């Protein structure tokens, strides 16, 4: 074990020099130095940082005009760097300085409007520019920025008025002159668009009227159903009041249309109640027969429906039925049989048949099955529209 004397003789003092700090602690210290700050300091920052507190005291040192001007300049620097968040905060602080200089306050408002213009906050632009012009009517930039915001909002008439007011004060202002050309061009575009919109609307209205007249001439009855107010009820009652437009709430590809040759095509639903299945025929021509569609859909060369396990859904066995639609409240719903050789127009023209909610509905049931018997027994009458 070495003696104290030996320890003293062998001791080598550490080399003097800088001690390496923890990288995170070093970065935090740097970012808290005012020169390197990437954000506006808070009151808490100033309380914890003596250097920052001293600098902030200098910022607020002076009369309101000097303080507001200082914040305006700092805001301008941030705006040039596209640091919009801090630019707005500096302009806010400049306005909070409560300077009596109307022109200075108008400039702060107008500069804040410039930031919001770049950000697309057009209504804030209009608010600040209006306030700036109340303080200084000679502020041409306020006219310019108001005009740009109004144009961006497609308020072209107001934009033109605002631009002309600015030009009345500074007729040779190139920026306003150029902006006015853009406004006039946009105004013409919007007027042309409005003309086309009105023409399209007029054409649509004429087509609807012609369609309605054709439907009426065919003797087709249209009915809408109103839902019961009691949510617990699963029944519907037919509305015998004026029906809504025939194509209301229908998909554009599933609507009754009038062809150029004057032929109506209807959306028709084939319902298979035994299996709770259905098919929607988007365009069933009124001069087509039910047999035409049944042969096409269930012919021998067609793939059988997966739910037709017994193979009874064939053209030779399928019967078509349609429910009557009451013409007055309390009238019973009956079941009519539709012959396969009947055309759609003939069936829809029957007094007791109606197109409900824009879609003609027909039930297809295979003849000779127990389900067919039960299905017919649900109704009180078996009269029908006969065919071959």
TrEMBL record:
<feature type="coiled-coil region">
    <location>
        <begin position="176"/>
        <end position="218"/>
    </location>
</feature>
<dbReference type="GO" id="GO:0030544">
    <property type="term" value="F:Hsp70 protein binding"/>
</dbReference>
<dbReference type="InterPro" id="IPR011990">
    <property type="entry name" value="TPR-like_helical_dom_sf"/>
</dbReference>
<keyword id="KW-0677">Repeat</keyword>
<keyword id="KW-0802">TPR repeat</keyword>
<keyword id="KW-0689">Ribosomal protein</keyword>
<dbReference type="GO" id="GO:0005840">
    <property type="term" value="C:ribosome"/>
</dbReference>
<dbReference type="InterPro" id="IPR044059">
    <property type="entry name" value="Csn1/TTC4_wheel"/>
</dbReference>
<keyword id="KW-0175">Coiled coil</keyword>
<feature type="region of interest" description="Disordered">
    <location>
        <begin position="226"/>
        <end position="245"/>
    </location>
</feature>
<keyword id="KW-0687">Ribonucleoprotein</keyword>
<dbReference type="GO" id="GO:0006457">
    <property type="term" value="P:protein folding"/>
</dbReference>
<comment type="similarity">
    <text>Belongs to the TTC4 family.</text>
</comment>
<dbReference type="GO" id="GO:0005829">
    <property type="term" value="C:cytosol"/>
</dbReference>
<protein>
    <submittedName>
        <fullName>40S ribosomal protein</fullName>
    </submittedName>
</protein>
<feature type="repeat" description="TPR">
    <location>
        <begin position="68"/>
        <end position="101"/>
    </location>
</feature>
<feature type="domain" description="Cns1/TTC4 wheel">
    <location>
        <begin position="262"/>
        <end position="370"/>
    </location>
</feature>
<dbReference type="GO" id="GO:0051879">
    <property type="term" value="F:Hsp90 protein binding"/>
</dbReference>
<dbReference type="GO" id="GO:0005634">
    <property type="term" value="C:nucleus"/>
</dbReference>
<dbReference type="Pfam" id="PF18972">
    <property type="entry name" value="Wheel"/>
</dbReference>
<dbReference type="InterPro" id="IPR019734">
    <property type="entry name" value="TPR_rpt"/>
</dbReference>
